[in-house]
């Protein structure tokens, strides 16, 4: 089939590659000419394992091209996927849907009446119905084909998640839209991936609900961590114990510095804002607490540092990690970066290390000092905070590190270190959600 992918950020670039790998002829549309040039050279422009290689392969196979705007070639397209961003609006919890409206008006003059527009962006419930009306007005079609097909990919495993999702959800208003989506996802459906057909509102809400549930699981275990810290219990053992109950499950129960990134924090806030608009704000008022528990974990790290070092003024603190999770260079709403900024605000001299995201850190936070060389980063520090669980931090040799650091103190913000090994190398080890005897 002929497919277009509009908006080539994390979601769009990955989806474009996934569609090309599924055998479709794909046009990627992105207004930023520099980004288009980069994509054409086979680079997505962000760190995502395996994506650049797959991108280059699909370009070489002639299945994937990029352009800055629609032209006559868009008229040949059967399914247009809209993948533009819906960031948090400045000064409000709500999502900014302006890029979606712009995408619809740019596409309208080139849309065939029998083609389908399928939104993939995460949106406030009710957005697709508004966009359908806008599309009808702009094209003159009495029943424009507009569907919603939320994407559940995770950064770090984005391509794999796009090609082999747990489920496909399509919100449609007519049979034609469903048929086109069945055709476009045929290889995935044939491999046994569940294909759920719903109305527009349900499909939109599925995504918000999934992310709210995931955020709730993480903040739930972090709330237990707060209780564990003052009662002598161990939140990681607790998570393991409750996780054996299949009704609870053991995934997304890792306690630590909390969730961040471009999705979970903004999506729970957007859901609160939308529920409020719809007059049912109380239904998800608890998400405010989920957000607060998450933010408090960052403060807890500073409190631990202060309990060990006294005032942080002129103390040299190394933050291991800046990305919001490993295998990503995304620093949006990153707990690691927030901890670095909080420590700096408390007077510390902060050094940030991250295997891939330091260029982005320097652009967004030029006030922070970064060190690319992990060995040098440890020199003369008073404390180390492991804030993002990159493999190279988990694999660190404590004996080697102990030779480099002045004051042997490490805070495990992700509960991934072998405490006994670090203690044997002379370190005091502190962690979130448990009290360690040093
Ligand atoms: C998330 C959703 O998982 C995905 O389905 C959706 O499409 C986009 O948002 P992503 O933002 O890539 O994906 O990251 P995810 O793996 O969900 O992790 C989010 C945050 O939660 C990270 O900061 C991670 O470190 C943290 N986390 C995750 C925990 O603190 N504990 C856990 O047990 C799991």
Give a short summary of the structure.
The protein is of the alpha/beta class and 438 residues long. The chain is built from 18 helices and 14 strands.
Describe the 3D structure.
The structure is a single chain. By secondary structure, this protein is of the alpha/beta class. It folds into 3 domains: 2-197, 3-Layer(aba) Sandwich (Rossmann fold), CATH 3.40.50; 208-290, N-(1-d-carboxylethyl)-l-norvaline Dehydrogenase, domain 2 (Orthogonal Bundle), CATH 1.10.1040; 298-431, Rossmann fold, CATH 3.40.50.720. It has helices at residues 10-21, 33-40, 51-60, 98-107, 127-139, 158-163, 175-184, 186-190, 200-231, 235-243, 264-277, 286-309, 335-345, 358-364, 374-377, 391-394, 398-404, 419-424; strands at 2-6, 25-29, 64-67, 79-82, 116-119, 146-148, 168-171, 195-198, 316-320, 349-353, 369-370, 383-386, 409-412, 428-431. The protein has a 6-stranded parallel beta sheet with strand order 3-2-1-4-5-6, with helices on both faces. Strands 11-10-9-12-13-14 form a 6-stranded parallel beta sheet. Helix 9 (200-231) crosses helix 11 (264-277), helix 9 (200-231) runs parallel beside helix 12 and helix 12 (286-309) crosses helix 13 (335-345). The protein is globular. Uridine-5'-diphosphate-xylopyranose is lined by residues 151-155, 211, 214, 218, 252-254, 256, 258-261, 263-264, 324-325.
Summarize the SSE layout with pairings:
Elements lengths: L1 E5 L3 H12 L3 E5 L3 H8 L10 H10 L3 E4 L11 E4 L15 H10 L8 E4 L7 H13 L6 E3 L9 H6 L4 E4 L3 H10 L1 H5 L4 E4 L1 H32 L3 H9 L20 H14 L8 H24 L6 E5 L14 H11 L3 E5 L4 H7 L4 E2 L3 H4 L5 E4 L4 H4 L3 H7 L4 E4 L6 H6 L3 E4 L7
Parallel strand pairs: 1-2, 1-4, 2-3, 4-5, 5-6, 7-8, 9-10, 9-12, 10-11, 12-13, 13-14
Helix pairs in contact: 1-3, 4-5, 9-10, 9-11, 9-12, 12-13
The chain binds uridine-5'-diphosphate-xylopyranose.
Uridine-5'-diphosphate-xylopyranose binds next to helix 9.
């Amino acid at each position: 089939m002929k497919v277009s992918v509009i908006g080539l950020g994390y979601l769009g670039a990955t989806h474009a590659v996934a569609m090309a790998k599924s055998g479709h002829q794909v046009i990627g549309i992105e207004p930023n000419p520099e980004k288009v040039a980069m994509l054409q050279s086979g680079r997505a422009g962000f760190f995502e394992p395996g994506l650049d290689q797959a991108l280059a392969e699909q370009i070489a196979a002639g299945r994937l091209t990029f352009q800055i705007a629609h032209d006559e070639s868009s008229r040949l397209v059967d399914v247009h996927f809209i993948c533009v961003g819906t960031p948090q609006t400045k000064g409000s919890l709500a999502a900014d849907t302006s890029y979606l409206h712009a995408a619809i008006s740019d596409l309208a003059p080139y849309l065939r009446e029998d083609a389908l527009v399928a939104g993939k962006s995460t949106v406030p419930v009710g957005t697709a119905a508004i966009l359908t009306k806008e599309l009808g007005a702009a094209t003159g079609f009495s029943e424009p084909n507009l569907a919603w097909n939320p994407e559940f990919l995770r950064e770090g495993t984005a391509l794999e998640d796009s090609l082999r999702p747990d489920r496909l959800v399509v919100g449609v208003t007519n049979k034609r839209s469903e048929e086109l989506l069945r055709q476009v996802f045929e290889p995935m459906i044939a491999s046994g991936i569940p294909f759920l057909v719903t109305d527009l509102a349900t499909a939109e809400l599925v995504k918000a609900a999934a992310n709210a549930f995931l955020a709730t699981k993480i903040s739930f275990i972090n709330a237990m961590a707060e209780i564990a810290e003052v009662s002598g219990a161990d939140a990681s053992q607790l998570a393991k114990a409750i996780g054996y109950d299949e009704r609870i499950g053991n995934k997304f129960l890792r306690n630590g510095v909390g969730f961040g990134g471009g999705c979970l924090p903004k999506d729970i806030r957007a859901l609160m804002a939308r529920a409020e608009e719809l007059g049912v704000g109380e239904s998800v008022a608890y998400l405010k607490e989920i957000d607060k528990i998450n933010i408090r974990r960052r403060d807890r790290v500073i409190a631990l540092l202060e309990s060990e070092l006294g005032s942080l003024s002129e103390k040299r603190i190394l933050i291991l990690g800046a990305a919001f999770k490993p295998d990503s260079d995304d620093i949006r709403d990153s707990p690691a970066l927030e901890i670095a900024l909080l420590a700096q605000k408390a007077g510390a001299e902060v050094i940030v290390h991250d295997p891939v995201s330091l260029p982005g850190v320097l652009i967004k936070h030029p006030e922070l000092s970064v060190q690319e060389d992990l060995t040098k980063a440890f020199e003369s520090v008073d404390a180390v905070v492991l804030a993002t669980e990159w493999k190279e931090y988990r694999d660190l040799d404590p004996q080697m590190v102990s030779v480099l650091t002045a004051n042997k103190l490490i805070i495990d913000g992700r509960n991934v270190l072998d405490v006994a090994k670090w203690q044997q190398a002379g370190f005091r080890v502190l962690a979130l959600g448990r009290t360690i005897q040093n």
